[in-house]
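Journal club prep, notes for RB
We'll compare a predicted complex against what the paper describes. Inputs for the pyridoxal-5'-phosphate case:
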Amino acid sequence: MILTNLQLFSESKKVIPSGVNSPVRYFEPYPFFTKNSNGAYIWDEENKKYIDFCNGYGALLLGHRRKEIIQAVSKQIARGTLYCTPTKSEIELSKLIIGNYPSIDKVRLVNTGGEATMTAIRLARGFTKKKKIIKFEGCYHGAHDSVLVKAGSGSAHNGISVSDGGLDEVSKNTLVVQYNNVQDLEQTLRKNKDVAGVIVEPVLANMGLILPTSNFLSEIRKITKENDIPLIFDEVVTGFRISSGGAQKHFRIRPDITTLGKALGNGFTIAAVGGRKEIMDLLSPGGKVYQASTFAGNPVSVSAAISSIKTINKIKNKLYSKLEKYTLRFTRSLDDMATDLKIPHQINSISSMFQIFFTTEPVVNYQTSKNADSKKFQKLFRSLLRQGIFIAPSQFEVVFLSDSHTSADLNRTLDAYEVALKSVKN
Ligand SMILES: Cc1ncc(COP(=O)(O)O)c(C=O)c1O
């Protein structure tokens, strides 16, 4: 018997809070339940096929069930799934990460992006012996107290600044500065002498997509250096996605600490925090900054990440130019369509990511993203979904392309966007 998505959602709500295991997965009236995926496609329990542009919120750079990765993981599973001792493959993976990210001297593997940013912040505090952290409005760094302050992604959608149950004592040590506003950062630093670190998404991918203005990242680097404050690049989204060396390679900036996740494992649970040797060596057991996890560096995820990086490095010359070409084709056509339909809009894009906003003003920060008409975005999302195109269900997320998308997928998706844009107009 085939249960419909609605029936499954009713069942799910009985046993899972709100029926979902992460807030952004819910959308009105109810989400579909996935049973299978391959390449650029996913199928729901009603056997409806979707072209996937959510792509694990950016994780699936190489597409679903990528052959090389599945082979590597299958081989590892036959040899064991968890040892909780060091393995040779962890050394291999660390060397690969360091090879792609010259700002990283040493790296520790963790499971999720949130764990990586939590550790990065603790390291910055341990290194400087200071307390406060500066983050930028709309940047999302995971669901922990220090960073769940004026954050993007699901929390922006729900209007949550500081979560119920979160401690004010913690979040009051997080200072929030406007994205793309260097003066704001300078002023905040002048007023606060107790700053342990500055954390930033080098490309803001959690308020829709917002690009850094021309000197923003280099100015942050300069200011943090002058003030002896570690700069943390949260590259959980941008790592391996904007380039094989992340946003830091693209923008030629060397942060002190980097967090990686998502595309690092192309769909497997793995993340990493890395940086300068003198900072990383503060981690326990050698140092006094405590960090630990049972599943960290588990051999299955490590084999996925090794295969993922090796595949990326092998095909990178073609991969990133192809993805960029496709994204440009996409955004140019979308721009033409919306212009022809006289729908006020902005499109931000870089590499394999883009987002459309229904607004007349350029989207450069939290407020301008919030000002866009998210009801219109919901209409767009629902129309696309009806037509078998799955993008992340929120204005504050991003459309991600993967290596699996073909030219034919793009053409079909553009046809669907045309229909969807007409529904936005009506
Ligand atoms: C930039 C950024 N940092 C950190 C995180 C947290 O990663 P995770 O969901 O794996 O904890 C996310 C998640 O979307 C993210 O986009």
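Talking point for the session: The longest strand covers residues 195-200.
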